[in-house]
Design goal:
3 helices
Length: 99
Amino acid sequence: MRPKTRRDIHIHASRRAEERYDFKLRKDEIDQVSKMICEQHHQGHLRSGAVRFVHRSSLARTVWKIFFKGVEFLAVYDKPRGGVVTFLPPTHYLWNEKE
């Protein structure tokens, strides 16, 4: 199996956003969301504005709540890849809140 390319990751993330939020994101929009997370991450996981840190799922991946174009998403940011790799279902956040 070949390694995943940036194109594969964008396609996967776009499909998950459409499947789970009924919202189609283009490549440039996914990159914009990734940039929003990266900028917020460098500010120290602040809990304000359109981007909010939710939890760390592994050493490399973090989950973020994003308000983008009128929709609230749960995005998984992968640090080694430098971008959003998928969007989680909205119920994932509710499930984690109960823990």
